[in-house]
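Explain the record.
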Amino acid sequence: MESIELIFRDIDARNEAAVRKITVKNEQESFIETVAECLEEAALYSEWHPGAIYHVDEIIGFAMYGSFGINKDTWIDRIIIDEKFQGMGFGKQAIKQLIEIVSKAYGVNRIYLSIVDENVVARRLYEGLGFEDMDEKDSNGELLFRYTI
């Protein structure tokens, strides 16, 4: 399979409107917040870094990551691939690249994320990339996963 190269860019006046149009399939809506909700949260907490995911010159998704807390735990908090681009390998490639981006940006060798229990596709994807189920839930009842580099 051909290698997919994605580009992560900050969200600004040039791309914000397009990023806000990213949507997931109806059956996925209960799995993750909307991009608008993510951007509102990022505006409140400077620790979150939201970004647009591009393939060539087209926005195909959104991601948000950050590091916070007493131990400076580092999270890939949100990743959304627009419904038009799902099933093409973009999500897998985005996670691979985010692991590299986040580990370098924060100088960490452990990255966390969480998913709702019903999101079996995401679970399969994350476990296939080496994330380990921590057998714990966060304060929202989501399953916690850890990736160790």
User: Anything to note?
Assistant: Strands lie at 6-10, 48-55, 58-68, 73-81, 110-115, 132-137, 143-148. The radius of gyration is 14 Å.
